[in-house]
Amino acid sequence: MGLAISKVVRQGWFADLVVRKLLLANVLPAALLALIGRSGARRGAKQSLLSKLSHALALLLVGGCTPLWVGFLRMIGQMGRNHNAMPSLGDENVGEALLANATRLNEWLCETSAGMGPDGTTWALGPAVVVTSPACVKHILKDNFANYEKGAGFTYPAGDLLGSGIFNSDGPRWQEQRRIALKIFTRRNFSTWMMDVFKANATKVVALLEAQPAGQMLDMQSVYYKFTLDSIGAIGFGTELGCLDAGLSTPVPFAAAFDEAQAHILLRMLTPFWSMVPEFTQRVGKYALPGEAQFRKAVAVVRDFGAAVVAERRAELAASGGAHARNDLLSSFMTMEGGEHFTDDYLVDIVLNFVIAGRDTTAATLTWATFRLATHPREAAAVVEEVDRVLRGAAPDYKSVTTMMPLTKAFLSETLRLHPPVPKDLKTSVKRDTLPDGTKVPGGAKVLYVPYTMGRSRAIWGDDALDFVPARWLPPRMAKKEQPDAYTFPVFQGGARTCLGKNMAYFEAATLLAVLLQRFAFELPPGSKAGRPAESLTMPMKGGLNIHVRPRDDPVPLTNLTHSSGAPPAAGAAAAAEASKCPFHDTSKL
User: CA 345, CA 166: separation in Å to the nearest integer?
Assistant: First the structure.
């Protein structure tokens, strides 16, 4: 430790950092804020001159000192903890870079990773470790899973919204929720009532699109979010939310509030004093960080919605004597052995966490897939040909979606590779560890693995990694047995935390696209600026996807969109065999 401290002192910036930047810019204002916070607390809720001063100082602290705080943490990390000599931005650049790229973190992480050395290089982002190699991701998600938790760096900033739900918990509570939720993600449920939910909502989407004036642009991202919210409402908690019934122009307060809250959680994570000093957070930070007041309002809207759903279900169960008449996830939790002891707040946590799983990720995938359909007409034509040939006007069913439309699945997989709905994921190491590439990870370190960057890695995907090539997922380029594992393609995590809804996401997205592509074509307007990712916990498209939705010149009449049935007409072994003749299987034609 002594040698490490001596090394830091010799670097020249130690005295300047501690005395002028750390002490004067951080410690003294923080101490003053603590005193003011105590004084303000004694005065009650009425805002005083001192509380206004507290607010102003906190804004200055949060807005101006982020680079200094990150630099200080980096210095602490060097004091005997980081012996790796990992590639790094340099202490003086970390905070500035984070602030300058706060609205494009995914792209910046990808660009910075490329400049750190060969693809897959592990590098230091201030006190955090950024991981982009499949071997290291496998180590974190599987081989040494117990050592890498969500940690307070994620759970604390997200706690107001997500509470103790499955995405915001570790240990027994997470295991309990996963065990119960696993019971509804079965093949039987996919092929029966889930398919009925997806088809019923797809019918509503078709009706809404057909009712729009010719030539009018639509934000398809908004449409997809309504579709997936209605779907998870039925599957997750047995409620008809009616988002699609309200029409395309009618906002959904719950959805708007949920989006706003998610975006603000990311801001919390990027603001060091918000979560690094709990006393500051509790007394001042929740009121000083820009947007906190609006965030609290948004969280209230979201959690009030969840509370209403829980109360309705409790009343329903009481009226039925506790009989379990529903298949949805919430009912499964409330009727399980011991479920009567779950508090309303805990059940609300469960509801809201599965909204992220069932709404945001699939809606983002559908949005990016539609963008690629509009920008890659040749690949889009191949998918449309497959859908028409396999379904012939019938509604998709479980068999056709899962086994008879390989091109559609390849198109979705390629979309997920370049546009992962969860582009980065943060873990915290419990104890010291060594990654497969030799990187030493201190106990308590933040470890960030980045599917967005990995999906663009030439080391993983070849020289055309940045190109949209669905054929890479199909023979002859990729045999079925060569499909990438969950650590090469970590879009749905891997190991014990593998996404429970992985198959449902493919299934739901393919079902809706199969219905829409038989009726509509998508066209971006000239000069469109669509295609940039927004910053949130998930990865929606910045500004939405405003696009022309035109009726096909040769629309396929749709039949049987209400209930699941057997295989569609002419969708047997012969139709499946025809897939091998599709241009996606011949890379020379793409």
Answer: 14
Alpha carbon distance 61, 281 (integer Å)? 12
Tally the domains of the chain.
2
pLDDT digits (tens, 9 = 90+) for 40-75: 444 343 444 444 444 444 434 444 444 434 444 443
- Report the pLDDT value the prediction gives residue 566, as an integer from 0 to 100: 38
CA distances from 250 to 56, 246, 263, 580 (A): 38, 6, 22, 44
Return d(Cα 311, Cα 320) in angstroms, integer. Answer: 14
Single-letter amino acid, residue 483 = Q
Displacement of CA 414 from its chain's centroid (Å): 17
8 Å CB contact between 124 and 154: no
Distances (CA, A) of 37 to 289, 293, 352: 15, 17, 32
Q: What is the pLDDT of residues 155-189, one digit of tens each?
A: 888 899 999 988 888 888 889 888 888 887 888 88
Domain co-membership, 350 together with 485: yes
Query: Are residues 180 and 117 both part of a single domain?
Result: no
Top-confidence range, 104-108, 116-120, 291-295, 373-377: 373-377
Q: Is the pTM of this model over 0.70?
A: yes
The reply to whether 92 and 198 lie within a common domain is no
- Together in a domain, 119 and 205: no
Q: Which tokens go with 61?
A: 């602290």
Range with the largest mean pLDDT of 239-248, 281-290, 472-481, 544-553 = 544-553
Please give the pLDDT value at position 289: 67
Domain range for 34:
2-129
Interatomic CA distance for residues 78 and 9, integer angstroms: 11
**Residue keyed to tokens 């909204």:** 355
In a domain, 159, yes or no: no
- Cα separations (Å) of 60 from 33, 49, 52, 53, 153? 12, 17, 13, 11, 22
Q: CA–CA separation, 508 vs 199, rounded Å?
A: 9
CATH value at residue 234: 1.10.630.10
Please tell me what DSSP assigns to residue 345. Answer: H
Residue 154 lies in a domain: no
**Distance from C-alpha of 414 to C-alpha of 180, rounded to nearest angstrom:** 31
User: Under 8 Å CB-to-CB from 519, ≥6 apart: which residues?
Assistant: 206, 209, 210, 551, 552, 555, 556, 558
Domain membership flag for residue 156: no
In a domain, 148, yes or no: no
* 123-141 residues labelled b (16+ CB within 10 A) or e (exposed): bbbbbbbbbbbbebbbbbb
Collapse the DSSP code of 433 into the 3-class scheme (helix H, G, I; strand E, B; otherwise coil) and give the result.
strand
